[in-house]
Amino acid sequence: MINTEFDIVRRRYLDRINNALDHCLPQSNIEPQRLHEAMRYVCLSGGKRLRPMLAYATGELLGAKAPDLDAAACAVELIHSYSLVHDDLPAMDDDDLRRGLPSCHTAYDEATAILVGDSLLTLAFSVLAGVPPDQAGGECRLRMVGVLAQAAGTAGMTGGQALDLNAVGKNLTPQKLEDIHHRKTGAMIRASVQLGALAGEADDCVLDALDRYARYLGLAFQIVDDVLDETENTGTLGKQSGADRERNKPTFPSVWGLGRSQQMAEDLYQQALDCLDIWGENAYTLRRLAEMLVHRNF
To answer: Which DSSP letter does residue 89 get?
Structure first.
């Protein structure tokens, strides 16, 4: 099998983020051992690594070197991992399967899972704030921390999760559903791109174009996720299929219908690509990442 240019780049990103996570996570033989073991179980047991790859690809597009992007890549993946642990808890989505393995509270226990989420969130900011001065100046680091905090907080991911939980059993307008997922899913995708861009010393004009790319991509990603929950099986997804329907949660297929949802995802994908036109072929990796995420079956 011949590897394409994108396969090679993607493999490089995956190897890099996995090594960086292994380095920044506490070793499992350090007290408290069970907590550290669970943190590593959550973060090193696979995953698409979408957010780190977006950070690497964006930064490299703007001339940043991969080592200068490791902290941003780790930070967004640590927060994503924490969000999955808490989402899976019985008080939230009550999922026993994640990435084809027992979810954290199932493999360990609920109390440990809560502490794992708390610890990963804290570690994310520690990693990002600790970027060496020769990689990013203090002003840049402060701005990056602000971007991440905004995306992870009530204006972004946690606020979106709260709205999503509150929407169970309700009829939502398409606009309300979009707002939920611009926060719950889209905010951290946007942050991944923004952090990469800030590491690449992007000006406001460049940041705006890349942010629009990420905004379109984030919503398309969630629509595809909802579609796959309806059309794929548990083995393919690595988590329970049909779970949203069983919980009576509003999804894009339930609000728009399956066909219209698929078309909307495709339209958003094309809009995301249009935002990259100013870079031409230099944006190849960001284009291919968008393609991989929208035209996927997992």
So the answer is: S
pLDDT digits (tens, 9 = 90+) for 155-183: 999 999 999 999 999 989 989 999 999 99
Question: For 205-246, how does the pLDDT look when each residue is reduced to its tens digit (9 = 90+)?
Answer: 999 999 999 999 999 999 999 999 888 777 666 666 667 778
- Contact between residue 233 and residue 95 where contact means Cβ atoms under 8 Å apart: no
Q: Which of 20, 51, 59 is nearest to 199 (CA)?
A: 59
Dist CA 148 CA 154 (whole Å): 12
Q: What CATH number is associated with residue 172?
A: 1.10.600.10
Question: Is the entire prediction scored with pTM above 0.85?
Answer: yes
Number of domains forming the structure of the chain: 1
**What is the number of residues in the chain?**
298
Identify the burial level of 45 via C-beta atoms within 10 angstroms of its C-beta, where 0-12 means exposed, 13-18 middle and 19 or more buried: middle
| Structural domain boundaries, residue 144 | 5-294
Note whether 58 and 193 are within 8 A (CB). yes
| Bridge partners, 102 (sequence order) | 97
Nearest CA to 120 among 144, 133, 104? 104
